[in-house]
Amino acid sequence: MSISLTPSAVERVRSYLAKRGRGLGLRVGVRKTGCSGYAYIIEYADAINPDDVVFDEQGVKVVVNSESLKLIDGTVVDFVKQGINEAFKFRNPNVKGECGCGESFSV
What we know:
Elements lengths: L3 E2 L1 H14 L4 E9 L3 E9 L6 E6 L2 E6 H7 L3 E7 L2 E7 L5 E2 L6 E2 L1
Parallel strand pairs: 1-6, 2-5
Antiparallel strand pairs: 2-3, 4-5, 6-7, 8-9
């Protein structure tokens, strides 16, 4: 089981954690929502909980709740800039469908 980050995502997490002055890494997960069932959650990890799984990607910790990992195992997280917009993007091999707006997915 794994979650990986592209070099662009690694750089974004490193620079933001340095600017923020605290944090252990990037927390990635899912929550039930939207028209397709699940949406991604992404935030900076300040703690590691007992049910978390931790991956190291080029020196950056990726923290995932064990329940979320079942749905996003194998996902590659990228950070992209398009004009003035920037966001983390997910390439999840488990996705069976996505809603039209791209905010939620089903597995």
